[in-house]
Records
---
Amino acid sequence: MYATLPLLQITDFPDIRRGKLETLQVNLGYRCNQACLHCHVNAGPSRTEMMSRETVDEVIAFLRLSAVRNLDITGGAPELHPEFRRLVVAAREAGVHVIDRCNLTILEEPGQEDLAEFLAEHQVELVASLPCYLEENVDRQRGNGVFQASLRALRRLNGLGYGRTGGTLSLNLVYNPQGPALPPPQAELEADYRRHLGERFGIEFTRLFTLTNMPIQRFGSTLISKGQFDAYMALLRGAFQAENLDSVMCRSLVSVDWEGYVYDCDFNQMLGLPLHLPGKPRVRLAELKGRDLTNSPIVVRDHCYGCTAGQGSSCGGALNQP
């Protein structure tokens, strides 16, 4: 695995500062039932890092005492964590909206037979990875059989009311480019997804999010091995749009790693760039209780151009759309 941080350290990315904290994004660990080529977390079945019960308790305590209204749970496959369901229930009891970043195939894993019903019962919003509507492309990127398993999961979720027109259960799909290219316009691609998945498979969904592949971890290492890293960074920098700076996710979100330390975003977490507080090399979530982060500086490096290129990219998809 090639390290990309040394290639990203020198940057002229604009200084940006935080707004109001609205979302707590929590990475429960790097274990996953898949090992996708575009994964910026380098997650997979062999990873063993998992958040402890005590750290999950810290997350729950923070949710109860803070004004955060959204809990964004990620991994790996966060549903594999033994504390996932307890965390969801505690957040919902605290009046917090829960988002689960789901790879869809997890619904067919042993021990997860009732997962879909659990998510629906607690009105968890799903952000589900489906990097293309074509079977060949999905299986190439995520493994043989993944597309068909994803279709089965989507049909099951639709049957529970997820993604239905006029319904209250949100099912958002996520598209990632197959290689070192920017995503196409989100609205146009969403229409293609709706037409293809609806007409061929009878599947409905709420929205499509297009995400730019970040030049870090597994994807960044692949770029280096193929001699494409510099060209991809030139693409991101050349497509920089200053208007995206107002909407980047790090202005309203903090990211918590499996050990309980805090970062400005999930990408900084993967690069080991902790949230900055004067006099503290690393900050635990518990240390943010009662602290107002508004207007504090955000740690930036060259990978930040990935969030501001073209239509922009965030955990909620494109930042500016027609």
---
Amino acid sequence: MNSEPPFSQRWQQAQRAAMELPAPDPAAQAHSLQLAEVIRQRISQKGGAIAFHEFMQLALHAPGLGYYSAGSRKFGAEGDFITAPETSPLFARCLARAIQPVLQSLPQKQVLEVGAGSGIMAAGILQELTALHSPPDNYTILELSADLKQRQAATLQPFAERVIWQDNLPEEFNGIVLANELLDAMPVHRVIWQQGQLQECYVASEQDRFIWQTGPVSDPRLQMRFEDIVAQLGDLPDGYVTEINLAAEDWIKTLGAQLQQGLLLLIDYGFARHEFYHPQRHQGTLMCHYRHRAHDDPLILVGLQDITAHLDFTAMADSALAAGLQVAGYTTQAHFLLGSGLTELVTQPQGDAAQQLHLANQIKRLTLPQEMGELFKVMALTKNLRIEMPGLMVRDLRNSL
């Protein structure tokens, strides 16, 4: 490999100024440059370009350097974005109430949370289930980040006797699996429809920056999927850019094979296929989050920003069915929370007027259509289990898939 100089600050500063992104401190900048050099080496090894899904994998998960594997704070006011559990403890309490009867019906009362973030959702669920006299026998967390494991352990210290950490999915599992804002951060393939041909988006390095290139698709499933999309929805405009999340589909298929009996609850933002691949969504759904600012350039601030893409929930349902799972429910976050006891929890005494106002703002963030209420969806997948969850019955959207 040519001994090129490390990425300069000039181009990144220009990009941040254009988007009004705050400048990283010197330590964060050095961290980003180190990861950028690792990515450039991979690009060189692959002949000058790598598919975007590989770039995204490195940017988020490169050992010790990727966004989720390094030690920067990601969640909450001090991080880059706020998840629903960080927004309000009501989210975890409603989730606990939703899964409590399912948990009680299972021979093995186990919960597995994949990617537990700061651990605040797990703590809220365990606290509420304990208050309902229905604590799980154990609460397992699958977490790859050593830094996040430490933070989760600190948050979950009051429930230490019930919490177990694992690095891999168990070969067999009976119980409830929770995945909140997990699949949106899995590496996606980015594709573009140009002059009647499907091309894949690749990332190359040019002087002091990463750039986009296009080339043949790296996985034949991409071509097959796009042909299915066009057959179902009609032709898409020339230059149409979108994402296909094969990693999430593969993850569901793997879990479907390993889940013997139980429930998989997916909570994430996305759409059914006819909405996801709408002609007006011609630039895709890729989004980056850096210090509570959202933008659409994943090629800057590597290792310092989150990179996500919305889910095609139709593809998730198809993968589930192929893996022997049943789609037991699909609805919006707002309707799921309302059906899972949100109104009952809100009517309980909540302190003085200031506390009530704060609570009202939390509820708005969780349920309003322009906030998390409509964009976030809840999908319930089951195996060898029949469930009746009120949160899935308020507004059943399965026919939209």
